[in-house]
């Protein structure tokens, strides 16, 4: 399997090379560096990465790559476990009061219109929120390769 949470294997990274036929004798000396038109494919388990992490991760990755260096981590910086321990000893009474006051008039019978895995019938309901779409076309041979790989590794695609 691609990810193993019990062993801390939660991220995978691949360089997708864009070779031209005239580049048959490319040196593998710097095969860990990106070349023009190469792509980086990064897969991160959803349990380890949220939407807010994307910009931080991309910024740090870009800085590390541009400076040809690792991002230094301050020895005094907090880690998730530090926050978790701190959160358990925090007095949450003010937060609890705030949310009770915010939600006291909420009608629990009101149903939200949430996105589903198929198009809604012609209700033409408007949705709000931030989203974007990136469309990438693959030829049939590559699509078949993706599907075969996903199937052999018990992945959805």
From TrEMBL:
Identify the residues that the record assigns to the Condensation domain, covering every copy. 35-156
Positions in coiled-coil regions: none
Q: Name one GO molecular function term.
A: catalytic activity
Checking SUPFAM superfamilies in the record gives: CoA-dependent acyltransferases
Residue spans crossing the bilayer: none
Protein's name according to its UniProt entry: Condensation domain-containing protein
């Amino acid at each position: 399997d691609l990810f193993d949470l019990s062993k801390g294997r939660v991220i995978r990274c691949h360089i997708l090379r864009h070779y031209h036929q005239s580049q048959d004798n490319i040196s593998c000396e710097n095969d860990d560096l990106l070349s023009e038109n190469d792509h980086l494919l990064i897969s991160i388990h959803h349990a380890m990465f949220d939407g807010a992490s994307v910009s931080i991760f991309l910024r740090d990755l870009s800085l590390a790559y541009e400076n040809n260096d690792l991002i230094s981590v301050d020895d005094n910086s907090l880690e998730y476990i530090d926050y978790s321990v701190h959160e358990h000893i925090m007095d949450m009474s003010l937060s609890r009061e705030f949310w009770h006051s915010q939600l006291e008039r909420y009608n629990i019978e009101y149903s939200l219109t949430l996105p589903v895995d198929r198009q809604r019938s012609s209700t033409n309901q408007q949705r709000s929120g931030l989203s974007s779409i990136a469309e990438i076309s693959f030829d049939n041979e590559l699509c078949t390769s993706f599907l075969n790989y996903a199937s052999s590794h018990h992945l959805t695609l």
